Each structure stands twice: as C-alpha cells, then as structure tokens.
Amino acid sequence: MIDFTDHIVLVTGAAHGIGRATAEAFARAGACVVMADIDIDAVSAAATAIAAGGGRAEALAVDVASAESVAALFETITARHGRLDCAFNNAGIEEESARLAEGSEKLFDRLMSVNVKGVWLCMKHELALMAKQRTGAIVNTASIAGLVGAPKHSVYAATKHAVIGLTRSAAAEYGRLGVRVNAVCPAVIRTAMYERAIERGAANADAIAAMHPIGRIGEVQEVANAVLFLCSDAAPFVTGHALTVDGGATAI
Description:
The chain is α/β, with parallel strands linked by helices and 252 residues long. 46% of the residues lie in helices and 17% in strands. It has helices at residues 17-28, 40-52, 67-81, 105-133, 154-174, 192-199, 205-210, 220-231; strands spanning 8-12, 32-37, 56-61, 86-89, 136-141, 179-186, 189-190, 218-219, 242-245. The strands form 2 sheets. A 7-stranded parallel beta sheet has the order 3-2-1-4-5-6-9, with helices on both faces. Helix 1 (17-28) crosses helix 8.
C-alpha cells in the first residue's frame, strides 16, 4: 500500500463522493487529512467517521469560490500544521443540461467561479506553501469533459479544460521547486448524484454503462486510487499529466 504516514493532506469537496473516498484512502494510508467542504455538517460527519475507524481527519468549512474563505482555510492549515504535503482540489459543481445558446449567464458565472476560480485560489496558496518547502504534490479534479466535448454541458466542459490548463501551466512553473501538479479526468462515476439521476429517470444506467468500453461506470475508490498514486513517491517523474480514469471512454 502507498504510505502517507504523517503527511498533511488537504481534500476539498470532501463531504461526499470522490472527495470523501479519497480522504478515507489517504487516512488509511497514514495521512492526517484536512477535509474541507462548503457543507460543514456533512464534512464533519465524514471526518468523525474516519476518526472512529482509527484515522486522522479534521473538518473545515470552505467556499472555494471566495478568496476570503480560501485564505482562512490556509491560515488554519498553516497555524495547525505548518506545512502541506499533498492537496486534492476536488470541489466542483455540474448543473447544466441545455445547449449552449440556451444557457444562462448566472449559471455560467457560477460554474466558472467554483470550478475554475476555486481551483486557482486553492492552488495559489498550495503552491506558495509547497514552493517554500521545496516539496509537494497537487492533484486537481478535471473530467473527460476537459479532454473532449460535452453536449449540453458546454460550460462545464470549458471549466474542466481550464483546470487542465492550470494544471499543466503550474507543473511547468513549479517543477524545479520540487512541486508536482497533475489532474485526474474521471468519466461517469457512481456517486449519490449519479444514483439520483438514475432514480428520477434523467439517465439510463445501461446506456451510460455502454459508453465505457470496459462495460460499466467507475467507482469512487478507483478515482481515489489514481489520486493517491499521483501524490505518492511512486510517481516522482509524473507532472503536468491529465490521467483519465474513464473505463476507456476517451479511447473511442
């Protein structure tokens, strides 16, 4: 198992889904996990569950779209721990379901604010800390929508293309300072959001599974495994990479 003993790790969007699964995986690997989310009640419950299982986790509230909130998060991390070894910038939203010409400016601004500005704000603080340490690893959550088009999700796709652009640019800027920056690009993953879409008939499970050559959708733990690999000493020469976790969806 990849070892993160005594590492300080930040996971945003940690209350549910991929974020929670990744926080749990880091904790099992020995890390002290700072779990940040806008839903403080849910992320506190998730951190409590990790602690009950013998792991180390703490919950903090953050609105990644707010510069003040993000600054406060990193002030707390610095005061409590004095360093940051790994960061998984996972907080994001997906709320579109319309063709581009039918989209609203309000939703455009919200998606850009959370998915792009949120990653940018977190990376500003993470990179400053890690550059000072001369070591660190960052992983950003993009999507296969950051690699290809996404009908009826054009703005979401644009935000994830932007995340990959930020990832590659930061990797080039900070590589000589000991900081690696990568992204994960999941396809459809089994989360509560996915399950709700199936239940209300907004998506067909068989059709979605068929989109993936492997014959099924992904599981949150499979994305978590990819994040831990990218953050670990097993990937010391991997930076600026957008790793697909997509069951072959982008292979066709």
